[in-house]
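Please predict the structure of the following assembly.
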Amino acid sequence: MQFLKDTHFKFTDYSTRAVGISLTVIVIGIISLLFVRGLNYSIDFTGGTLAQIKFQREVNANQIRDALESKGVQKSVVQQTNRKNEYLIRLPEYSQEGGLKNKVNQALASVDPNFKNLETKGVGPQIGEELRQDAIMAIISALIAIAIYIAFRFKYYFALGAVAALVHDVLFTLAIFSFAQFQISISTIAAFLTIVGYSLNDTIVLYDRIRENMKTSRTFTMKDLIDDSINQVISRTIITSLTTFVVVVVLSFAFGEVKIFAYAMIIGVITGTFSSIYVAGPILIAWKRKLKSS
Amino acid sequence: MFKKTKVRFIIIAVVILLSGYSLYWSFAYATMSEQEKETLRRKGQLDKYKSRALHLGLDLQGGMHLTLEMDVPTLVGNLASNKDASLNQAIQAAKKASNQTEVQFIDAFEKQVKQNNIKLAKYFSDYGYKNSAIFDKLRQEAKDARSRALEKIRNRVNQFGVSEPVIQKQGSNRIIVELAGIEDPERARQLLQRTANLEFKLMKDPQVTQSLIQSIDRYLKSGEVSQLDSIQGDTTESASEDSTAEIKEAQDTTVDVDEVLGIGGQEEDSGQKDTSTAAVVDKEMMKEKPFSSLLRNSQQGMIMVPKKNKYHVEQILQKEAVQNLIPYNSAFYWSPEPETRTLRSGETREFYLLYHLNKEADLKGTYVTGAQASLGGSRGAAGQPIVNMTMNNRGAKEFAQLTGSNVGRRMGIVLDNNVYMAPNIKNKISSGRTMIEGFDDMQEAKDIAIVLRAGALPAPVDIISERTVGPTLGQAAVDIGVKLIIISFILVIIFMGIYYKKSGLIADFALILNLFIVMAVLAYFGATLTLPGVAGLILTVGISVDNNVLIFERIREELAKGKTVKSAIDSGYSSAFTAIWDANFTTIITSFILMQFGTGPVKGFAVTLLAGVIASFFTAIFVTRTIYNYSTSKEVKQELSI
């Protein structure tokens, strides 16, 4: 069995249009991110209210979540503690004023009028802030190291293409997260790291072919060379993307943070495959149109 | 060729066996019943299983995640030798400012002091004359305070018996504590927030201790004969079981009573007997002196207990009847950590120290105002690491009395019921300035200084956030996640089998082996598996599959060019190698950097990925190639199932 045998697609003919579309998504996404909807940070990042509630009758986490939502309290995290009918409820807001408190109290009373609020307290946002900075610093350092390695192993302008592809993927995923208002939590950071790793893998495989063809090929333009290279690796790209895709699609049937993780990965697999073909490749053409002087 | 393949198979077999051994503990621990666990605990072997098993993180297993914050304002207030309204006002104003903005408390305090023209020497005369010098000292104190708090918390957390607790500094004044698998959050909270309790307790006369141990021996022995006390009979039985089942280990417990409680400078571990007679002597010993046979040589009342015997000794000491034998005003205390000693035979063993001290504190630690580690300058201790301890006036008076009437005795430094050391009182100390000497190195001296200061001027620690992962919800999500991962994994395996036929199956074998090795590596290094770690595993699956896909696609290309099976395999591997190398090496760089700079989830991801990528070099290239080599070496193949 073999998909896509001996193909000769002119991938780069469409690169302007393709990059145009994805740039549009990214630009709109960044506007949305900065000015309109922002990102939906989970309580890991925002801090908020942590309440410990004891109910007098049998209740389950879903009942509580639904009741809170019906009163307009969104994004609550309800976790059962090890004690009977006792729950930890996290809300991504903290206010001591009446509004939120009333809504929460009404919601909880509708579940069980005899509930007891054991403890309510604010949890600070700074924790998320520090962790986020650590993660961003780590990713930037990794990008620089990768760029140096690629410049050393390939040609210096390949580094530019690889980094551009990675930045593209992260921005694209963030854009989708802003549109869809998926929650950004600790596991989403893991997903972003996975996307970066996956996309990089894809890009390197293509670059390896381009490097090899640069030595042996008789084509004169970078464009033709890149099209040939993409066609040669497309079968492998499809198989690998497909297997990864299967894994993350199956995983998206989970719930909670695992589900969001899977969503991020689905977006990441698509954009990772796309960016290695339409970002990492075309940037080389922009840099160097002709291979040999004819 | 075939010979080479044989060597390759041997290497693969060794890797599989080592991985299997590493994972055996996880498997054994996970499938053990509570009863079996208790049996092993008695033998002191349970820790071995627990520490070698793969740890699951808070997100997969549940537990507690706490963020603690040092109360720096209160610390500064406590450090002042006297306080008045203007100082309190400045502290309050600075506290408010630092709560509302990102400014550190001490910076805000410095600003307040400048604004109000306060002369700090009035309040902090111990810390210098100039304001700037005092601020330097205060900053240092705040930094130290956290190290002390960290020490305190580590000490407390160890009492839970949590494996691999995460205790880390965060920002300038926070500490993160993660306890996986904690079942009683209330108890954890209480233990972490209680302030440290430092006490000084005099050691009991070694003669008294010796006779006490002998009477415990007599009691246990009589109990064994009469079988009156079932619990006690049980313990004795299991103890003697140990001695017969583990003769080698029992040698460790073979000592004469004189040696056990030898006073004065007897050589350590003289209990090593000739192997041929040891077993007999030991069995007799165990019957004759059930308690002291568990103990080792002691020096001046400090009893050494081999790590493995600690649980037994604790069990015996906890018995009501044994408790009744111990004088009402004394008690046994343990050292917090085992110490490594070298035996005469050259082996190293770990020992806990057991101390018999006064039950009530002879002096409270709150009198201690400071402790500094330094190199001794005066006569006897010149060049040796020492700790200078200072006390306030009241403490100095009591200490003078205490030391004056107990010259020659030892005094235990007890923090939260653990004895950190028991120095000898050389002479009466009336100045309130005490020099402690006899440390092995500077680090030990520093550690003791921290312990001493932990009791002095404690900065309160607030729990600012605490997360309990409810086992029900966590469990359900984890269960479904695990099922889905297995399903997707099976789909990948089936797909590879269909698409690449027999070659696909070879890749599948490599993939399974890869995950097996990664798990084994994680278990071996005591890493904790978390959800980000699972993300790393998923990427590992992707990379492992990809490596084989790269190779197979190349082989197909070569076959399409009309090459023979053997040469298609050869050039397939060699031409795919550069792509695999570069792709994997960049991933290794990435994961290495994420491991160094990242914290928490980022680190967990990186560790698994790093293990996965390195393992995939082995499985996807070396292992699959070996299988190909084997199958092509037997006969010349015309066709390759790919």
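Chain B is about 60% helix and 15% strand. The two ends of chain B are 23 Å apart (CA to CA).
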